[in-house]
Amino acid sequence: MRRLLKFLHSVSGMGYAGGLAAYMLVLASAPPVDSLQSYADLRASLVPVTKWLLMPSMLICLISGLLAMAIHFPFQNAPWVWAKALSGLLVFESSLMAIDGPVKAAASASARAVTGEIDPATLQGLVRDEWGAWWALLAIAVANVALAIWRPRFGIKTR
Length: 159
What we know:
Elements: H1 2-28, H2 36-71, H3 73-76, H4 79-114, H5 121-150
Helix pairs in contact: 1-2, 1-5, 2-4, 4-5
């Protein structure tokens, strides 16, 4: 069971980080907002990436990590595991606020801009605000991997 959880945790962590990086690359090469239909199509195509790759990967990673903590007693006393668990919860909450909601909102806003309901200039602001959150989430994901590899003791001796 421990190996299965470790496998799920590692694979889903890679899926999350890779999906986030791919998402950022696709959006970085997006057509200009002036090409409203192309831009709206691109934004709509990113919704399934979030729904079927980013969010499930993040959820599997969080659950498998917490289960690994629960079944492997030494993890319960290791400070690095608790730091990783707290940062995992931070990734979960941040992903819901910075990825899941904004992706759907941007796709909806882009579609509304095509129909003329909103000004296309407001779409620029949506993307600019998202970049900071994506970089922060990617940094936390990398920090989680670093914690798992180096397993710092944080000045507390454990057995």
